[in-house]
Amino acid sequence: MTYEAERLAATLKAAREKKTLSQRTLSVRAGVPQSHISKIEHGKVNLTVSSLTAIAHALDLELALVPRKAMPAVNSITRSVDDVPQAPSDVRKEISRVAKQLNHIRVSSMDPSGFEDLNRQFRELRQYAHLITNAEALRGLREALNECEESGGHGNLRDITRQVSDIRNALAHGSTGSDRPGLPRPAYRLDEDNDE
């Protein structure tokens, strides 16, 4: 395997680990056998364009041919994206637990479109993980998912999806650590009017 191929394989592995995905989960998302992903990551097989494309898209990465002269700018931008602050360890653990729980829930007894909407909302929430200062809302989310699964999928999936969306929206709109991340902030308050 060439140096460039090794570097590419290492980049794919790092991206997979950053998203806390197992090789098996990535395999399902990319449609590439798990054994092939393992061989790619360990440098035992060369990447094909089709495998590279499928794995990259499953990891929310884009492939592009960039002029060599533009590479310093592209590398600079990529480094700045990678330098996003990390979430506290208890928040990272809770996010990982929720992700694992979502991967193991039996979808057959649930509304597939509602479950896909929940997964989409959770993927969007993960983009704001570094802004979460308290893992309590994530624990509540995990408990709601447990209840939904224990009821055979008859729990209110729509309420759980709304809960994830509310947390994401509060974070996206600048909710501070002291605010409850599950509740959106009011745009204004009538009791603070001082018309003197």
Give me the strand/helix succession. HHHHHHHHH
Cα radius of gyration in angstroms: 20 Å
Determine the structural class based on helices, strands and strand pairing.
Answer: mainly alpha
Strand content: under 5%
- Tally the beta strands: 0
The residue-averaged pLDDT reads: 79
The helicity comes to: 55-70%
**Anisotropy-based shape:** globular
The first-to-last residue Cα distance is: 76 Å
- List the uncertain runs: 176-186, 191-196
State the helix count.
9
Tell me about the largest β-sheet.
Answer: none
Report on the architecture of this protein.
The protein has 196 residues and is an all-alpha fold. The chain is built from 9 helices and no strands. The protein is globular. Helix content is 59%, strand content 0%. Helix 2 crosses helix 3, helix 2 crosses helix 4 and helix 8 packs antiparallel against helix 9. 17% of the residues are buried.
List keywords for this structure.
196 residues; 9 helices; 59% helix
Write the layout of secondary structure elements.
Blueprint: H1 3-18, H2 23-30, H3 34-41, H4 49-58, H5 71-82, H6 89-104, H7 112-126, H8 136-150, H9 157-172
Q: What is the compact description of this entry?
A:
With 196 residues, this protein is mainly α. The chain has 9 helices and no strands. Mean pLDDT is 79; it is low at 176-186 and 191-196.
